[in-house]
Amino acid sequence: MLSRLKRDFEPFSLSGVLIISLIFGLANALVRLTAGVNLALDDTKQNVFTQKLAWGYLPDNPPLYEWTLTVVQQVTGPNLFSFLIVKYALMTVTALFLFLAGRRLFRSEKWAALTVFSTILLYQLGYNYHQAFTHSLMVIGAVAFSLWAFVRLVQQPALTNYAIFGASVGLGVLSKYNFTGFLAVMVLTGLLDREIRRVLFDWRMLIAAGLAAFIAAPHFVWLHQNQDLFVTYVSNKLGQTNGGYAGRVGEGIGNSLVAVVSFYLPFVLIAALSFRGAFMPARMAQLPEDPLMRLLARSSAVAFALILAGVILFGVSNVTERYVIPFFLPGFFWMMWLIKGASTPARVDRWVVVLGSAALILLLVRFIGVFYPGNPVCDDCQRWRPYAEIWKEIRLAGLDEQAIYLGYEEDTSGNLRRLLPNAAVRSINLRFYNPLDESDIGKPCYFVWSEELLGQPVQAQFRHITDQSETIHVLAQWWHPLKRSGWRETNWGISPIPATDRLYKNLCTP
């Protein structure tokens, strides 16, 4: 059977793309597991949010990622495996819809597959995707889905396809707010083409818009109820509070230039060497005959203009490569169209070798980045912090594992939830999110803190809790196969909060 699979396996087909994507995802998941099962970076924050379904969580991100993670955790529990399953399921979904869109655009399964595989040379998708993304995972998949739906709609403007496109937009808006950048680029660029304008101005687009609004409406009602918090979070995230307007605009323009150039690296450099003449100015100035490919050829310029407009009109200074993925991913298909026009069988064969080599190199670099403790790879080395020692001490002291546990910061809180899946866990840094309900009334409440993680003493308002004699101190030794035992240590405190204390009412009640 295995020999038959080898004989019948076709990498440049839909099944081949899905199988290779799953294998690459599994390899990256195994690399991550070499550093153990601690949660790190934004995963810790999300693990606090998955305790109950809500119409909104973070004011600066919509809830589709949290919803998906919450559903998966009903099977896996609130652990690292749930995050890896969601991450690489979404990567496979992204590969699926990029392939389907590419097959329609290139009318070739081979070039559709090559387009999917070539995304490994886009830094944000080939490397950073595996490092730190949460909501960006969802928006990348949503952009791939919506791009396919848009291509299908333009090629076959039937009522069903309008509905599919509307559903993709509704889900996209719930994935991450910068999805609207993709939508704006598609619509504005489409208006430049007579054939696509007819599709956009068809009355059936009202059905698509209505379906998108229906899907996203409950979250936007929640957002309206929390609009002050939303404005604060988003303005800080976009750098609109960083100094004067002129300085922000100057910084924003510089960051925009860096973002658009670096987004397509190292793909453009390697492709230019592999497919000589593909990116010659005369060829890039020649617009394709196909209206959809013309749209994609213009999309990056329109995207850059939109970003600059945001910088100038709203004083946005923080423009990062991660934020602009929905704006510039469609233009990648046009770049693949350029190298397709400069391809020969020998060049394509060499390109496949380049992509395979890049995959192996990136896996090796990731392994070093994940596994090696200390500079220059990591300073905090959060993945190696001995959170399990807190759980051991809780069990040794006979504390209620279904009680309420408060972490001072989300790193501890997210890992407490992993270690104590039946407890109710809050993070004081995320005080606006309260997962407690009536079933938690009257439960014991414990404050878990560490001055080392804060980089400063515990705030004065908590000192009467942390300094009490009932506090349990946990001096946890770090372990690593390449280091001597106890090469670092973390000192945690587990402090009970009396039910009569004002902090119990503020933090330990629904």
Features:
510 residues; five-stranded mixed beta sheet; mainly alpha; 2 domains; 5 strands
Written overview of the protein:
With 510 residues, this protein is mainly α. The protein folds into two domains: 14-37 and 79-227 and 238-371, no CATH class; 385-507, no CATH class. 62% of the residues lie in helices and 5% in strands. The protein has helices at 2-8, 14-33, 42-49, 64-76, 80-106, 109-118, 123-131, 135-155, 159-175, 179-190, 194-200, 205-225, 227-237, 245-263, 267-274, 281-285, 291-314, 325-328, 331-341, 345-371, 388-396, 410-419, 451-454, 463-466, 502-507; strands at 404-407, 424-427, 445-449, 472-477, 489-496. A five-stranded mixed sheet has the order 2-1-3-5-4. Helix 9 runs parallel beside helix 12 (205-225), helix 10 packs across helix 17 (291-314) and helix 14 (245-263) runs antiparallel to helix 17 (291-314). It is globular and about 75 Å long. It starts with a helix and ends with a helix.
How is the largest sheet built, in terms of strand order?
2-1-3-5-4
Low-confidence stretches: none
| Tally of individual helices | 25
Work out the number of β strands.
Answer: 5
Q: What separation lies between the terminal Cα atoms?
A: 57 Å
Largest sheet: 5 strands, mixed
Order of helices and strands: HHHHHHHHHHHHHHHHHHHHHEHEEHHEEH
Shape: globular
Give the percentage of residues in beta strands: 5-15%
Domain count: 2
Q: Compute the CA-based radius of gyration.
A: 25 Å
What's the average pLDDT?
Answer: 90
Structural class by sheet pairing and helices: mainly alpha
Helix content: 55-70%
